[in-house]
């Protein structure tokens, strides 16, 4: 089995990606990042999901993005309860770039040529670092800036959910046996992981289950 590093946030999308990587025959190494987000219940969910889906290892790396702020998830900015125009205040500056860079470093240590992430360009909140162009550019960077890219067989960044709707992601998770009740997607979840039911993440998640015709297992506060 080849090693792969999978970014696991604790949300529904990354849980499905972890299951996909396992189905493709990879020995999965789950990576979570505590970056100063508003709550850590999603990190508890990441640990649960990683265990449930048979990850060979689960690592949490700490990065203090709260020290620079600039996002409703890392600063004293209210999480909006409805979508708006443009890039929302829940966008965390450079978050996916930083997370993928950490994943890249661990992949080199493990001798893994494959990195998986759960970015999505269909049912998402307008984040620029969820676009296909970003994933393609990061893969180019990975192969230019690493020993593994220069001397090895090359590195691949997989975003298997990139062009799937939330309903498609729900259906894929059901097919793969993902326990969505163990995941936390809410931007404003409480300490136990109960969701607010009003933020963008909650609304997109609920719509995904409704459109897929699958009962929503989310615990709401």
Automatic annotation (TrEMBL):
Cofactor annotation comment: Binds 1 zinc ion per subunit.
Family (UniProt): Belongs to the QueC family.
One Pfam family matching this protein: QueC
Top EC class for this record: ligase
Record field: catalytic activity: 7-carboxy-7-carbaguanine + NH4(+) + 2 ATP = 7-cyano-7-carbaguanine + 2 AMP + 2 diphosphate + 2 H(+)
EC id: 6.3.4.20
Record has Ligase as a keyword: yes
Keyword line: ATP-binding, Ligase, Metal-binding, Nucleotide-binding, Queuosine biosynthesis, Zinc
GO MF annotations in UniProt: ATP binding; ligase activity, forming carbon-nitrogen bonds; zinc ion binding
Protein name, UniProt field: 7-cyano-7-deazaguanine synthase
Role, per record: Catalyzes the ATP-dependent conversion of 7-carboxy-7-deazaguanine (CDG) to 7-cyano-7-deazaguanine (preQ(0)).
Cofactor dependence: Zn(2+)
GO biological process, alphabetically ordered: tRNA queuosine(34) biosynthetic process
Alphabetized InterPro entries for the sequence: QueC (IPR018317), Rossmann-like_a/b/a_fold (IPR014729)
Pathway assignment: Purine metabolism; 7-cyano-7-deazaguanine biosynthesis
Residues bound to Zn(2+): 186, 196, 199, 202
Positions annotated to bind ATP: 8-18
């Amino acid at each position: 089995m080849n090693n792969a590093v999978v970014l696991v946030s604790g949300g529904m999308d990354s849980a499905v990606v972890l299951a996909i990587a396992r189905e493709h025959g990879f020995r999965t190494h789950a990576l979570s990042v505590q970056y100063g987000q508003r709550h850590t219940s999603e990190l508890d969910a990441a640990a649960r999901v990683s265990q449930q889906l048979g990850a060979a290892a689960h690592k949490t790396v700490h990065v203090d993005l709260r020290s620079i702020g600039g996002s409703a998830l890392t600063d004293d900015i209210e999480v909006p309860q409805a979508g708006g125009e443009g890039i929302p205040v829940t966008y965390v500056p450079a978050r996916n770039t930083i997370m993928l860079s950490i994943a890249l470093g661990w992949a080199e240590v493990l001798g893994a040529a494959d990195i998986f992430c759960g970015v999505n360009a269909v049912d998402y909140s307008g984040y620029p670092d969820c676009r296909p162009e970003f994933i393609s550019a990061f893969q180019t960077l990975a192969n230019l800036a690493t020993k593994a890219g220069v001397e090895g067989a090359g590195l691949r960044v997989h975003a298997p959910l990139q062009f799937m709707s939330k309903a498609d992601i729900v259906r894929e998770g059901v097919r793969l046996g993902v326990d969505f009740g163990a995941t936390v997607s809410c931007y404003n979840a409480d300490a136990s992981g109960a969701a607010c039911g009003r933020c963008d993440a909650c609304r997109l998640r609920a719509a995904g289950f409704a459109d897929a015709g699958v009962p929503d297992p989310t615990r709401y506060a």
